[in-house]
Design goal:
By secondary structure, the chain is mostly helical. The protein has helices at about 5-30, 40-50, 65-75, 80-90, 95-120, 125-140, 150-175, 180-210, 210-220, 235-245, 250-265, 275-310. Helix 3 (about 65-75) runs antiparallel to helix 5 (about 95-120) and helix 3 crosses helix 10 (about 235-245). One of its GO terms (cellular component) is cytosol.
């Protein structure tokens, strides 16, 4: 009869795996300085103008690029909440604690450099940005009740880190500005390394307790929400970004869910029992439905773009 492992038992079993992949991460991670990615001369130019109030004309970014940058920054701003959640999930002992500290320090650079860039270049209203930061961080995030905090947490952060990488990289392209693109490419590289660490832990968890992990993966995939959900204006901005190819349903399905599930060999495993099989069937049905929704979204977006082009013509 199948006996579920506790989070504590899973953490102890997988700590050697975490230590190995932590060392691998440290070998590949590149230390960088946020101040090296900020055009400080632009800040001095604005200061010479007498510190005038912000006007949209001061920004060289499009509406889409500004919305994407603010959404991404506010998401990164919530690091204290993420640190709390990941500490509750992984603990602060041994290799797990070392990873939590390293991950937090690396993630903190992202908010630092993005805010400096936006304020120095006057790309967004700094007063409105600070108000949004205060509101978002005060709300924070919290994890829903889950059958295994560890397994669900690993599944979620694997998908979330990859989604964030894609959003940052596409935002850099949308900015059409070399400094911003270089900065966001640097951040995306960090996010990819973080994803790889969590994805490897997920693979080990699947080998250790496949039925439990499959249930956790299915629960996370079918309820997935980006961590910026509670920030001011998130839903409006999410729609705007989806319409403009920053992060949409097709990317979520084809560039996040399917690649990770393929790496985890979710649909190739032969070590599942009844609960794992049921979870896998549920996951398969969800992905089929998501494919239909993604196709419908693309068709609607294409029609809207065609109407807009015809109106301009």
């Amino acid at each position: 009869m199948f006996t579920a492992l506790t989070d504590r038992e899973i953490l102890l079993e997988l700590e050697p795996v975490a230590e190995r992949h932590l060392n691998e991460h440290l070998r590949h991670a590149e230390n960088w300085n946020p101040h090296d990615y900020v055009p400080w001369d632009e800040g001095r130019n604005f200061a010479a103008m007498g510190g005038i109030d912000w006007e949209p004309e001061q920004s060289s970014l499009s509406e889409v690029a500004r919305a994407a940058m603010v959404t991404n920054l506010l998401t990164e701003d919530n690091l204290p909440s993420y640190h709390r959640e990941i500490t509750d999930t992984l603990g602060m002992d041994g290799a797990w604690g070392t990873w939590v500290g390293r991950w937090t320090a690396e993630e903190n650079r992202h908010a630092i450099v993005m805010r400096d860039y936006l304020v120095v270049t006057r790309a967004v209203d700094p007063v409105a940005l600070e108000s949004a930061r205060m509101a978002h961080m005060t709300t924070g995030i919290s994890s829903p009740e889950q059958i295994s905090q560890f397994l669900s947490g690993v599944a979620y952060v694997t998908l979330q880190e990859l989604a964030t990488r894609i959003s940052h990289r596409n935002t850099g392209i949308a900015c059409a500005e070399p400094v911003a693109e270089r900065m966001l490419s640097r951040i995306a590289t960090d996010e990819n390394l973080h994803m790889i660490f969590y994805r490897r832990i997920g693979s080990a968890a699947l080998d250790l307790t496949p039925d439990q992990m499959l249930r956790a993966i299915t629960d996370v995939v079918t309820r997935f929400q980006m961590p910026g959900l509670t920030q001011p204006g998130f839903r409006r901005n999410a729609v705007l970004l989806a319409k403009n190819g920053i992060y949409d349903l097709r990317q979520h399905l084809d560039s996040v869910l399917r690649p990770v599930l393929r790496t985890w060999r979710v649909f190739d495993r032969t070590d599942l029992s009844g609960e794992g099989e049921r979870a896998r069937e549920e996951l398969h049905a969800y992905l089929e439905d998501l494919e239909v929704k993604a196709r419908r979204f693309e068709e609607q977006r294409d029609r809207a773009l065609a109407r807009a082009a015809a109106a301009v013509g």
